[in-house]
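Forum: Protein Structure Q&A
Topic: Joint prediction for protein chains with partners

I've read a bunch of threads here and the consensus seems to be that you should model interacting components together rather than docking separate models afterwards. I'd like to see that in practice. Below is the full input, 223 residues plus whatever partners are listed. Could one of the regulars post the assembled result?
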Amino acid sequence: RKEVEQDPGPFNVPEGATVAFNCTYSNSASQSFFWYRQDCRKEPKLLMSVYSSGNEDGRFTAQLNRASQYISLLIRDSKLSDSATYLCVVNSATSGTYKYIFGTGTRLKVLA
Amino acid sequence: ETGVTQSPTHLIKTRGQQVTLRCSSQSGHNTVSWYQQALGQGPQFIFQYYREEENGRGNFPPRFSGLQFPNYSSELNVNALELDDSALYLCASSLARGSLLFGSGTRLTVV
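Posted by a regular:
Agreed with the consensus. Here's the joint model:
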């Protein structure tokens, strides 16, 4: 089983739609969680950190469920410019060291 | 904010050769990590350095090695290049377990 799993998509949605992505992680000791956005042939860029209480940034809402070990990202009122790959990232500690584990990414295409 | 810079941006090497990729961290960040990203995949963790010592490593063979310097810049060295090493190599800097700030990457092609 992969440490971090995402549905690769693609998700094709019309402009204005609401779309949700989920991501599951296997290490219950994971400590910090992020969503990154990656445009084609570019580096990943931080979209938002994810907190247990949930957090919102404009049209984007992220949630963390530690009991079920998943995080989610909700995008409301999708824009053409939201088309990208969304990467789920989990920071896990093992034997005194820690590392960032990425999911394979979920591709989103917003259609006019 | 200076950002993270990587060099070179593109590189073509022959199988069996050695390569060194370089990264300058964001000012104030004390941790640097390296990732390999193949086409259509998420970034794969190679290793991480904190205060010049490796403190985390992914499932990569020993021919992948690195260094972090006192100014927190870093190098990734790959020996005995294989065709499968062709990928985008990303460097990221961070503070402790905070969010990662990535450089624009080095695209390595092994022929």
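Chain A has a mean pLDDT of 93.
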